[in-house]
Every structure is written in structure tokens, then in C-alpha cells.
Amino acid sequence: MTPHVHLCLVLHNHQPIGNFDGVFEQSYQDSYLPFLEVFEPYESLQISLHTSGPLMMWLAERHPEYLDRVRLLVEAGRIEIVGGPQYEPILTMLPSRDRVGQIQSYSRWLQRNVGVTPGGMWTPERVWESGLTTDVVDAGIHYTVLDDYHFKAAGMKDEDLTSYYLVEDQGRLLRIFPGSEHLRYTIPFRPADETISYLHDVAHRHPGAVMTFGDDGEKFGTWPDTKVHVYDEGWLRSFFDALTENQEWLHTVTMAEAIRRVPAAGKAYLPDCSYREMTEWSLPVEAQETLEDVTHALEKSSEWPRLETFVRGGFWRNFKTKYEETNEMYARMMYVSDRLAKAEEAGLDAGVLAEARDHLYRGQCNCPYWHGAFGGIYLPHLRNAIYEHLIAADTILAQVEGTANVATATAADYDFDGQQEVRLSNDQMVLWLDPACGGRMYEWDLREIKHNLLATLQRRPEAYHRKVLAGPGSGDGDVASIHDRVVFKQEGLDECVQYDRFPRKSLMDHFYDNEATLESVMSGDSLERGDFVDLPFEAKLRRGGDRVQAQMRRDGNAWGIPITITKAVTICQDSDTMSVAYLLENLPPGQPLHFAIEWNFAGLPSGADDRYFSDVDGNQLGQLGEKVDLSDARGLSLSDRWLDIDVDLKCDRDSGIWAFPIQTVSQSEAGFELVHQSVCVMPHWIVQADAEGRWAVRIDVTTRCGKSEEPATHRMFAEQTNN
């Protein structure tokens, strides 16, 4: 056979639900549009193009001319449209009904708007489990692309990965193309000739081979430094020139065309896997650091080429244990999905349920459910977007079920930890309490503005913090992959690395030394003297008239002194106020104790004058990113004029009140950065027992929501946060 090779270029363009409009536009101008403009004149070249649902729908609204150009290339046989789940979820975290539903929903959208029904799909983040095969095939898909890493994890070698394979589950067959990691790292970071030489070698060793490049389209212009390299310096034109000049033996084809030309290499059963870097990121931090150290050590060995295949990372689902916040979003999503399925079984209004389903699907977008070289779960605007759509779906379901105007209290294992949680709801809000973990409140949904005030994030160690402490640097060469870059977006980040012992939730009950200060609590230097923060409380639900209450009680201790804390959380129908009454009992007479109740408020960012603290008299006390230390106060207000929300916290006795920002040092594709996550507010008292050894306080928190236009300060903040 004459030496030749087929090259499938599979581009994946994606922007997540909730990303800033300016990011969409910048990526369009830097990547999607210029790539198309360079590609159009090369009439002999074909590509497979996947554009995720959120991005495709944005393009249809904002740049329909781009879709017109794509349609012409589709009609010319030069672009194959690749489908997938509509809002880019990790398929393995969805129930089967939502996997099939998401894929079919996007296929129908593409048929209506682009005129094609896709035969292939992009598997988000290439997260694969063998049980997906049945759902993917049942959704109408015939082929997809994963990484060669998946196949090597099944024991295959590079020599085996010169075509696509058949995978089977319950009698369904799916074709899977192995995306080359070698090509993923040379395109576009190495000279085009290197890729051509590599493919030339493959053509002579395996005539008729199919080689696949499957990766992010954003690496052609949006990733740091790539716009200059790919377009201004002409890398992409040189690559397309080289493909065209060698087309006698190098055939650039779509995946559909490759299937028509070349038979499958055989059948394979692939293990649960993702791309190599994702498996590393999913590991616990200590294991991730160990894997990194072991890999670097073994790379120096002559045995490394034989051993590399057997050195692997972890399992994607463990992001739900690595980040408690991921599991909270996941559990919230599953609650909505199950509730929607029951509403459909009950035959409720199909049109209304379709709206709820679209919100559910949007709330399954994968990006904030994990974290690696991209901001992921560390980006508050992405977390907030997930909750926005899940809360919207939940509210629609409550309305169609007829429960929206009733105060309810229920208990179930909502977060899949084997313990019961409590859900209190009315027409204004939904509170989620975890008696087994300190009786804390871990979610607080405001229905009107579709916002979770507790979409917070605990500061925890990350493997890349070793790089933060080591200082800035760069990868080898002029243009480095985002996996190799070490860039600091701000100075002094090494001094900002801090970790939290407990999640940043609300109704967290602390006992500190009497001398504890705002600074010592902020820095984490104040020791925890009680056992109430994360140990179990007993819980009872009470329902009466138009109100519901969760009463939680714990017999614990502080400084070894037996103390009982009872806290009762109450909401009433038609009220935007939640009340919590605390009773401390068995307090030692004559011994003052320092007691504090921690609250956290997410989605109220710093850095703008229209986000500020106020005292009970309405006097502004500074931006939400500043520190507040009040004495003998009866309350504190937090205002965000973009969300148009005021949160008023009021105590029925004089209190000290501390408030301070929670910021994380996290990694994104652009480098390491400091991200504002939430505001901690902590009323505290030097408690003196009464004659019966008791002490009490009541705290009312009112959330006043409205509607307003987005001010320029938010747009500015959004741009600064992303740049």
C-alpha cells in the first residue's frame, strides 16, 4: 500500500453557562472568527467542528453571520458539525434520562438552526465510563473522540492507535477515535513541520492510518500568547499550507469521512478515564503531589517509556469528595432532576416542564463542578450561574406542583452522605440545613433573584500552591501550553495562601479565647475551643400555621465544660426574613466565654463602591472587600447594587461584629490569581450566664431583593476579574 495517512482535525469550541459576555466576544474575535477566516480559502481541507450549546446559541444571537459562513462550509463538505450534550455536562454525573435528553436536545437544535443532524459527538472533558455507550447510542450518536490515554489505560500501545475502534455495551456499538496526545502538544505549540514529520513517519509505518487531533479551539488564539503566535506570526497558515502541500499522502478528513474510508481497527473496552491531566487533578492533593514527584523522578529513567502507561491518576467522580462544594451542586442538580421526572410522570403541564428542563440542563454545565488548569469551581460567577438555573427550575416546579405558596419543612438525605438534611422553604427562599455537620446552613436560595447566598468556597491546599510559593516562571519555548505556564497575575500571592479548617457556611458555632481579635480569627490563628462547629446536632421539625422551624440541639463542650446549644431556624410564608434563636445552657456561673456565630455570604464581590457594608443607621462602612470591627452593635447590612440585594443582619442584644473577605489563590489558564469568594460576618459576644446558667440571642436576617440594570461598575469588575 502506498504510504498515506488520514488526519482528523476535531475542534472543540466552548464557553460555559454564566461566563461573561465580554469573554464570549473576545474569544470569538481572537479564536473562532480568525480560525474560520484562515480556514476558508484552503478548499482541500476538512475539519470536524464541535461548538458547545451555550456558545452556539450565543453565536446564533450575536453573530449569525458566523453561522451563515459555517453553513456554507458544511454544504461544501468541508466542515462536519459534531454534536453532544447541549449544555456541556460531564455525562457520567447525570442520570441516564438527562444524558439522552441533553444529546437529543442539542441534535434537534442543530437540525433546526444549522440544518444537520450530527452523527458524532464531543464527549465533554473526555470523561468516559463504559456504561455511557448505551445512552450515547440510544440518543442517536454513532461515534465520538476520546484521548489515546483512554486506550493506553486499556493496555494498548501507540502502534495500536492508528484507527478508530468499536466499543460495545448491552449490544450497542459506538465508534471511538483516539485523540493523539502527541498532536495535542505539538499543535499549535511547535513548528508545523514537526507535526508533518510525525505524520509522515506514521504513514510509512502504518499505511492508511487514521490519526486524530481533538482539542480546544481556544488554543488557536484565546489561550495566553496564542493569538500572536497562531495568527500574527502565521502559524496556522503555515500549518494549512503544509497540509495542502502534502495532500497526496496526507488526507485531512472529517471523522464521518474517515469511517467511510477506513474500517475499524477492532473492538476495545475502555476503562473509566479522562485525559491525563484531568485524572491527575481529580486526585486528593497529597496523592497529586506524590504522582507529580514520582513522574518527574521516573522520567529520568530509561525505563520510563515502558512504565509511563501504568502511571495514572484518579477518577473524575472523586471531584465530589475533593470539593464538598461540587457535591453540593451535584446533589442540588439531582434533586431538581428527580423532582422534574416525578412531575413528568404525574402528567403536569408539559410546556411549563419544558422550561424547567432547560434550566436543569443549563445547571448541569460541567465547568464549575471541577478544577484543574482552568478556574472551574474557583470562579464564583460560574458557580452562581449553576445555582441560578437550578433555583429557577426548582421554583417553576414548585409553581406547577402548587407548593410555591406554602411554607414547607422536609428531611431527607439530600446530599448523599448517609445522613438526613433539612429543607425549609417558602415563596421567598429555600434553606438547606445539615444537622449532622454542626447544624450548619449550607445553602440559602433566594427565589426572586435566583441566587444562592451560600455558594461559598472553602480555602484548601492545592498541588499547584507549591508553584505559587516557588514564584513565577514560564514553560519551555516562546509559547507554552497552559499546562506548563507559571504566571502570576498579581504580586504577593505567596503571602495570600491560607486554608480554612471548616467549610465557609452559616450558623457555624465557635468558641474562642476571650482575647481573640478580628485579625487572629481572619488569619486562622484563633484556636477552636468548642466542639460545635462540625459535630452532630439532634434535629426536630415543627410546622404550625404559616411557619416552619428546624430546631437543632447539641450537648457538647467548650474548654472541656459541658454546654448545650439549641438553635431554632424559622421562616414564615410570605416573608423575606429568616430567624434563628440561640439558647446556651449549663454555662458555668461567673466565667465569661467568647462565643461567635459565623455567617458567610457569597456572590457579593469586592472591588466596587456599589457593594458595601452599612450599620443599622444606614451609614456606609466601606466596600465588601474591607474589614469591619464593630462593638456594641445591633446589626450589619451588606448591599450589592448589581444583584440589587440588601442583606440585613440584626441581633436582639448588643454584639461585637467582625466582617472580612474570603479570598482564594487559584489557578486559571491565564495564571495564578486572587479571587474574592465570599464575605464572612461573625457576631460575637463575651457570654455571661444568668442565674440559671443560660444565655440567649436572636438573629433576624432579612433579604431585600429588587430589579435593576447592570451598572458599569459590574461590567468593569467582570472584565478585571477575567483579565
What would your notes on this structure say?
The chain is of the alpha+beta class and about 725 residues long. About 30% of the residues lie in helices and about 30% in strands. Strands 15, 16, 17, 18, 19, 20, 21, 22, 23, 24, 25 and 26 form a twelve-stranded antiparallel beta sheet that branches. Strands 1, 2, 3, 8 and 9 form a five-stranded parallel beta sheet that branches. A hairpin with a 2-residue loop joins strand 6 (about 165-170) and strand 7. Helix 16 packs parallel to helix 18 and helix 17 runs antiparallel to helix 18 (about 380-400). The longest helix has 22 residues, at about 325-345. Residues about 705-723 have low confidence and may be disordered.
Largest sheet properties: 12 strands, antiparallel
Please tally the β strands and state the result.
Answer: 26
Distance between the termini: 52 Å
Which structural category do the helix and sheet elements fall into?
A: alpha+beta
Indicate the percent of residues in helices: 25-40%
How many whole angstroms does the radius of gyration measure?
A: 28 Å
Count of helical regions: 21
Mean pLDDT: 93
**Based on CA inertia axes, which overall geometry fits?**
elongated
Q: pLDDT below 50 for ≥5 consecutive residues: which ranges? A: 707-723
Strand content: 25-35%
Secondary structure blueprint with pairings:
Elements: E1 5-13, H1 21-39, E2 47-51, H2 53-62, H3 64-75, E3 79-82, H4 96-113, E4 120-122, H5 132-138, E5 143-147, H6 148-153, E6 165-169, E7 172-179, H7 181-186, H8 192-205, E8 209-216, H9 226-232, H10 235-245, E9 250-253, H11 255-261, H12 276-281, H13 285-298, H14 304-307, H15 319-322, H16 324-345, H17 350-362, H18 380-401, E10 408-412, E11 421-425, E12 429-434, E13 440-446, E14 451-452, H19 465-470, E15 508-512, H20 518-523, E16 538-544, E17 547-558, E18 561-572, E19 577-585, E20 593-602, E21 611-614, E22 620-623, E23 628-640, E24 645-668, E25 671-687, E26 695-705, H21 712-722
Parallel strand pairs: 1-2, 1-8, 1-9, 2-3, 4-5, 5-7
Antiparallel strand pairs: 6-7, 10-11, 11-12, 12-13, 13-14, 15-20, 16-17, 17-18, 18-19, 19-26, 20-25, 21-22, 21-23, 23-24, 24-25, 24-26
Helix pairs in contact: 2-3, 16-17, 16-18, 17-18
